[in-house]
């Protein structure tokens, strides 16, 4: 007979958003690389269902490289956000052409 997989998920994990401890089986996996299907050599973080439901689940292809392109030492939050808005606005214009 095959053992139920439910037994192995009875451990607790901590939600990275709110810090609540929840059973692994009740949590959602979070992969900051955006590819939870490629599981080789990865350690996943977890979100409780409430925090996961509150997230935007839009694609984020290219987001990390965009952030790295606009980051600079000493930028204020306002300067960083200004650069971000400018970059995504320009990207949207190019996409519409």
Overview of this structure, please?
The protein is of the alpha+beta class and 97 residues long. Helix content is 35%, strand content 14%. The chain is built from 3 helices and 4 strands. The strands form 2 sheets. It has a two-stranded antiparallel sheet. The chain has a two-stranded antiparallel ribbon with strand order 3-4. A hairpin with a 6-residue loop joins strand 1 and strand 2. It is elongated.
Quick rundown:
The chain is built from three helices and four strands; from the N terminus they run ββββααα.
Provide key terms for this protein.
97 residues; alpha+beta; two-stranded antiparallel sheet; two-stranded antiparallel ribbon
Distance between the termini: 60 Å
Report the average pLDDT across residues: 84
Q: H/E series, N to C?
A: EEEEHHH
Query: By helix and strand content, what is the structural category?
Result: alpha+beta
Strand content range: 5-15%
What general form does the structure show? elongated
Share of helical residues: 25-40%
Low-confidence stretches: none
Could you give a short account of the major beta sheet?
Answer: 2 strands, antiparallel
Q: Quick one: how many beta strands?
A: 4
Give the strand order, joined by hyphens, for the main sheet.
1-2
Compute the number of helices.
3
The Rg value, from CA coordinates, equals 18 Å
């Amino acid at each position: 007979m095959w053992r139920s997989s439910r037994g192995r998920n009875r451990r607790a994990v901590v939600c990275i958003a709110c810090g609540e401890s929840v059973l692994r089986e009740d949590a959602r996996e979070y992969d900051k690389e955006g590819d939870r299907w490629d599981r080789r050599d990865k350690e996943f973080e977890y979100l409780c269902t409430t925090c996961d439901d509150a997230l935007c689940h839009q694609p984020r292809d290219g987001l990390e490289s965009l952030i790295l392109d606009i980051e600079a030492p000493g930028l204020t939050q306002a300067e960083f956000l200004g650069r971000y808005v400018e970059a995504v606005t320009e990207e949207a214009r190019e996409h519409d052409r």
